[in-house]
Design a protein that fits this description.
By secondary structure, this protein is an alpha/beta fold. 33% of the residues lie in helices and 21% in strands. The protein folds into 5 domains: 86 residues, 2-Layer Sandwich (Alpha-Beta Plaits); 85 residues, DHBP synthase (Alpha-Beta Complex), CATH 3.90.870.30; 171 residues, DHBP synthase (Alpha-Beta Complex), CATH 3.90.870; 123 residues, 2-Layer Sandwich (Nucleotidyltransferase, domain 5), CATH 3.30.420; 206 residues, Nucleotidyltransferase, domain 5 (2-Layer Sandwich), CATH 3.30.420. It has 23 helices and 30 strands. Helix 5 crosses helix 9 and helix 21 crosses helix 22. The structure holds zinc ion (ZN) (2 copies) and fe (iii) ion.
Length: 757
């Protein structure tokens, strides 16, 4: 007889791990206990040596599907002669090695019960079990126990308590366990907060209102959705007006997977992405179906997701049709999580409010992902992914990183990896900045550790830069594109050396120009700018990000000087009046309010404007996305040439776009389609990346920055680098856009410390 003390680290709480341990121990005739602790799951098991060995093997090999065992530590202790195996009360002391579990979509077993008239939870919208249900959105503190979640205000009834305490029940220690008798319930409210209906009546009335063309605010897992009939053009157009969101696509929730297949093309990878426990919004190719034009205007893709909370399943089973389900907020404001807030902020948008009384502890948006090069690429990392730690090698605990300004996140390095917060949005409003501040505190508190240093962007005017300076901690700054490259490496468990291709819209360059078309070499000694896109001016500064025609004019002016203003046959030039052109000429000639940029995002915008696709954008990245889509069907078009200049000693090489610009003008004047220009540009850029990488002599090439959300660019670049015998690295579960900046800041700082700086 032996007794082992076993500590299991990883994603082992909130996934049915203790019940699994209990069952396995009993089946092997072992005695002892299992309990949650901040350090992970702690087990003491007593029995024969062979049985203990089988038990240890089972812990990692047979763990429940949503668990991830990162490490198992064992030591022998004195035997106690226990007679049973039990689940013990959690302990709250110790280093927090257990991961905070993400929210999990309703599982198949719970779904079956939900629609089974004989089940006691028939049509109960808060059904869950150890394999599914809310987690991160209800957790107030760790270790994960009902007493430290927002479910603590719902004492379990006798029937729920019996399930919770029965080791053979699939709700054994299911922390949010609830039923109609004891758990949360639904209500349907009018805009003045008066109750229209309760419980299942509320759900049916909400469904009826949606069918009739109403917009209903629905409280879900991480916040409110605004829900409307996806086929009703009048309602969707009204939703756009009220939300002040003219064109940015809305996501559509379909009742079932076969329903999705009627509207969109589906690969096996996309099916897997739609149905994994995170249930993110997946970008899919449209191929028909009845979706109102205003849902995603002029967009060959549709953001699609499946019901992930019981309330969605019930609503969609009542409706039997796809619904728009978009974040309940005004543009640029954080998602609304609370009933009172919803009434105040969404009153002008929604007619009715389907609410419940289980508090949402923190706002969490839906995640967004797509398949690129045959695998998952997360574009917005939130529900279902956050706050899983990223195992960045060589990063010591205690580094707090506040991220950038757009698509902000917060990162905090811990003993189990760098914890990365959920997507917090653009910090353009006071409410968004306050939400970022709360998330910073929240991230630190959940780890119960003290940050010893804070990392910020170099940009002096970012809200996160000012917030970092006010924390009273030592402050370090990391250049924006260095952070992008570091994020890409860290997510894959890699570290420098590597060549980073960091392409995005804007980042603060240490030379006083705007960077965004960068080739950075990172190694043990630091980083060096190997090459960059040829610079051009952006007349109007920030206005150029909203008006691709300005980027185009800046590009033409850099290439042709004053002659650019006479090229009125070109759509972006013609899009300005004569008087406007005079103002812009003055700006460009004097360099006033026309910052110099090496921005690849703005180069894409400029080509989209030249190809007559778009002169003004109504959301970030719109023009570049339309250029990407235009290229469909033009594969194999010969690449434009973007030559690489020789660099004088020590200076960076320059990727020159002028020959590509001239060739594009020739194509345009010969009547070529926008798609041909798009395909030739993408192919040329991929070839230019491969040429720089070969010249740099670095085998590993990290592709990062918002431009690598572009599937065409990423796929062509990966192919070009592979053909050149190099090793391309691109993002997977950390977004290539600024959502990854906080992680990169923490990783780069960690690596700098390791060198002893
Ligand atoms: Zn379940
Ligand atoms: Zn109950
Ligand atoms: Fe960026």
């Amino acid at each position: 007889m032996k007794r082992l003390r076993i500590r299991v680290e990883g994603a082992v709480q909130g996934v049915g791990f203790r019940p699994f341990v209990h069952r396995r121990a009993e089946s092997l005739g072992l005695t002892g206990f299992v309990r949650n602790s901040p350090e992970g799951v702690v087990v003491e098991a007593e029995g024969e040596g062979e049985r203990l060995a089988a038990f240890l093997a089972a812990l990692s090999e047979e763990a429940p599907p949503n668990a991830a065992v990162r490490a198992i530590e064992t030591r022998e202790v004195a035997t106690c002669g226990d007679t049973r195996f039990i689940v013990r009360e959690s302990t709250t002391r110790g280093t927090r090695m257990a991961e905070v579990p993400p929210d999990l979509a309703t599982c198949a077993e719970c779904l079956r019960e939900l629609f089974d008239p004989a089940d006691r939870r028939h049509l109960y919208p808060f059904i869950n079990c150890t394999q599914c249900g809310p987690r991160f959105s209800i957790i107030e503190d760790m270790p994960y126990d009902r007493a430290r979640t927002s479910m603590r205000r719902f004492p379990m009834c006798a029937a729920c308590g019996a399930e919770y305490g029965d080791p053979s029940n699939r709700r054994f220690h299911a922390e949010p366990n609830a039923c109609r008798e004891c758990g949360p319930s639904l209500a349907l409210w009018r805009g003045d907060g008066s109750v229209l209906a309760r419980a299942h009546e509320a759900l049916l009335a909400a469904a009826a209102a949606i069918r009739e063309g109403c917009i209903v605010a629905v409280k879900g897992i991480g916040g409110f959705h605004l829900v409307a009939d996806a086929a009703n053009e009048g309602t969707i157009a009204a939703l756009r007006r009220r939300k002040r969101r003219p064109e940015k696509p809305f996501a559509v929730m379909f009742p079932t997977l076969p329903g999705v297949a009627q509207c969109c093309r589906l690969s096996p990878g996309e099916v897997a992405l739609l149905t994994q426990p995170a249930h993110s919004i997946v970008l899919l190719r449209r191929q028909g179906g009845h979706i109102a034009p205003s849902v995603a205007p002029n967009n060959p893709w549709l953001g699609v997701f499946l019901p992930y909370a019981p309330v969605h399943h019930l609503l969609l089973s009542a409706l039997q049709m796809p619904i728009v389900a978009t974040s309940g907020n005004m543009s640029d404001e954080p998602i609304v999580t609370d009933e009172a807030e919803a009434l105040a902020q969404l009153a002008g948008i929604a007619e009715l409010f389907l609410v419940h009384d289980r508090p949402i502890v923190r706002p969490i948006d839906d995640s967004v992902a797509r398949i690129v090069c045959g695998r998952e690429l997360v574009l917005r990392r939130a529900r279902g992914y956050a706050p899983a730690p990223v195992r960045a090698p060589g990063v010591a605990p205690g580094i707090l990183a506040l991220g950038g300004h757009f698509k902000a996140t917060v990162a905090f390095s811990t003993a189990k990896g760098v914890v990365l917060s959920q997507h917090l949005g653009d910090l353009e409003t006071a409410a968004a900045r306050a939400a970022h501040q709360r998330a910073t505190l929240d991230t630190v508190q959940l780890e119960a550790a003290r940050p010893r240093l804070v990392v910020r962007d170099l940009h002096p005017d970012y809200a996160t830069s000012r917030a970092a300076d006010k924390l009273g901690l030592p402050v370090a700054s990391v250049q924006h594109h260095v952070a992008h490259v570091a994020a890409c490496l860290a997510e894959h468990g890699l570290r420098p050396p590597a060549l980073g291709v960091a392409w995005d819209g804007t980042g603060f360059g240490p030379d006083g120009t705007i960077w965004g078309g960068e080739f950075l070499h990172l190694d043990g000694a630091g980083w060096r700018r190997i090459a960059h896109l040829r610079r051009f001016r952006l007349p109007g500064g920030d206005a150029a990000a909203r008006e691709p025609r300005r980027a185009a004019l800046g590009l033409l002016y850099e290439a042709f000087g004053d002659d650019a203003f006479a090229m009125t046959d070109l759509p972006p030039v013609a899009a300005f009046s004569g008087a406007e052109r005079e103002v812009l000429r003055g700006m460009l000639a004097r360099g006033a309010n026309a910052p110099v940029a090496s921005s690849m995002g703005r180069l894409f915008d400029a080509f989209a404007a030249l190809a007559a696709l778009r002169q003004r954008a109504s959301y970030e990245g719109q023009a570049a996305a339309e250029l990407e889509w235009a290229g469909d069907g033009y594969d194999g078009a010969p690449p434009y040439v973007l030559p690489l200049s020789d660099a004088p000693q020590g200076a960076a090489m320059v990727v020159d776009w002028q020959p590509a610009l001239e060739a594009a003008l020739e194509d345009l004047r010969a009547g070529a389609a926008a798609g041909r220009i798009s395909a030739r540009l993408h192919a040329g850029l991929a070839a230019a990346i491969a040429a720089v990488a070969v010249a740099a002599g670095e085998r590993r090439v990290a592709l990062t920055g918002g431009c690598f959300q572009n599937a065409r660019l990423t796929a062509m670049t990966v192919a070009a680098l592979t053909a050149a015998g190099l090793e391309p690295i691109w993002h997977r579960r950390v977004p290539p856009n600024d959502g990854g900046i906080a992680l990169g800041q923490a990783a780069w700082q960690g690596w700098a410390e390791e060198k002893g700086e």
